[in-house]
Amino acid sequence: MRIFVTGCRGQLGRDVMETLSERHTTAGLDLPELDIADPEAVRRRLAPFAPEAIVNCAAYTRVDDAERDPAAAERVNAAGVAVLAAYAAAAPCRLIHISTDYVFDGAREPPQPYLESDAPAPLSVYGRTKLAGERAVAASGARAAVLRTAWLYGRHGANFLKTILRRTLAAPDRPLRVVNDQYGSPTWSWRLARQIAAVLEAGAEGLFHATAEGACTWFELARRFLEEMGLPQRLRPCASAEYPTAARRPRNSILENARLKAAGLNVMVAWDADLREYVRRYREALLAEACERT
């Protein structure tokens, strides 16, 4: 299959490119070299490759900045997705689009998860623009699948785990406060890339949740990560209210992969098992990167 990946140099995009290249012909571009909100630019860059499928990993993910510059988030997360969906419908080719837990308000008491059938109610500009992107895909008539994920980490790019590691190494004796009242399913981008491949190769369409199995808080994730890394822990649990942010975060970001399981397509595993394997593969590389930035 000929597959074009947008956002190909991001945390998820790089893993998607590597995974799909094992069995398919791939090409990709990242922001800003491809303005996905420009229909002519999209046609000019994609048409020569003649993709049979597009995987859209491109997104405006600076959640707090989106509150101050909603137009920037809307251009990528909503207008850009609408352009890609229209191209896919006209080409025609399939579309896989990546969305987020932020389409929910997180008011449900954890550990009760959100299902694909639950009504979205985003709290932030970021969440609203991502929901608008989902709806643009649904309205386009393209043969498409939307995968919602959450709490992503990986080898490439910046993420929560790398921040915890860098701060721990920079000040090993200083207590590090970590939020302990937000719940989610930490999801490894490498595993999610394989889930995307499974959905694409099965020809599945519709809305799917795609996160690791099980859930924890940010504090629990940080504690387990440092434990797996073999590093001392000077963590202190704290409340979200101690870290006010421009954008409101969902308290409960737990998603249930109900439709993937019903279709026999779920390849996601327990979050702590994936975390252990992530550290086993990348411990030395993570330490080297953190030391360079400390």
Structure description:
By secondary structure, this protein is α/β, with parallel strands linked by helices. The chain has a domain at 2-158 and 186-214 and 254-269: NAD(P)-binding Rossmann-like Domain (Rossmann fold), CATH 3.40.50.720. The strands form four sheets. Strands 2-1-3-4-5-10 form a six-stranded parallel beta sheet, sandwiched between helices. Strands 6-9 form a two-stranded parallel sheet. 43% of the residues lie in helices and 16% in strands.
Please identify which CATH superfamily of the domain at 2-158 and 186-214 and 254-269 we are dealing with. NAD(P)-binding Rossmann-like Domain
CATH fold-level name of the domain at 2-158 and 186-214 and 254-269: Rossmann fold
Average predicted local confidence, pLDDT:
98
Q: How would you classify the quaternary structure? A: single chain
Order of helices and strands: EHEHEHHEHEEHEEEHEEHEHH
Can you count the beta strands? 12
The poorly predicted ranges are none
General shape: globular
Structural class estimated from helices and strands: alpha/beta
| End-to-end CA span | 43 Å
Strand residue percentage: 15-25%
CA radius of gyration is: 19 Å
